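Inverse folding, one chain.
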């Protein structure tokens, strides 16, 4: 009877359970603590003749909510992985913050919540972040790759 193999298996099972619990808590917090999408409007919406909207707008809200439930865990996992990889990039590049920011900007920014505007095609869904404008404003061409 090998006691070390049993304790190692037990530790792996406990670590896997803790990781699953942490991911579930993160997903639950992301879904419940995010401010409602309709509170982010900059201009007040015109008052409709009927209070409460239409059936099609309610359907779009429901479809957007369901789409967010499917999309958000993948985007959150990608962002968490990108945060870790960006940190490792920072360490292994000799503490070069620009290299790490390239990874962080690509993975951490982007669309996290799907709205009806995304589903209607009015706004693009960006899984990857948009590059920082300061990097593009230098006006210098990118260096050619070493051949």
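Residues assigned per position:
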């Amino acid at each position: 009877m090998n006691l070390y193999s049993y304790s190692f298996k037990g530790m792996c099972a406990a670590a896997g359970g803790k990781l699953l619990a942490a991911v579930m808590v993160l997903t639950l917090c992301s879904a419940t603590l995010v401010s409602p999408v309709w509170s982010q409007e900059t201009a007040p919406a015109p008052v409709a003749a009927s209070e409460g909207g239409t059936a099609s707008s309610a359907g779009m809200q429901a479809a957007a909510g369901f789409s967010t439930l499917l999309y958000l865990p993948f985007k959150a996992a990608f962002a968490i992985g990108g945060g870790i990889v960006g940190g490792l990039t920072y360490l292994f590049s000799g503490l070069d913050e620009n290299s790490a920011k390239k990874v962080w900007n690509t993975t951490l920014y982007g669309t996290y919540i799907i709205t009806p505007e995304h589903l209607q095609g009015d706004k693009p869904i960006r899984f990857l972040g948009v590059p920082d404008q300061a990097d593009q404003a230098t006006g210098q061409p990118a260096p050619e790759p070493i051949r």
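Residues 55-92 form the longest helix (38 residues). Residues 45 and 51 are 12 Å apart (CA to CA).
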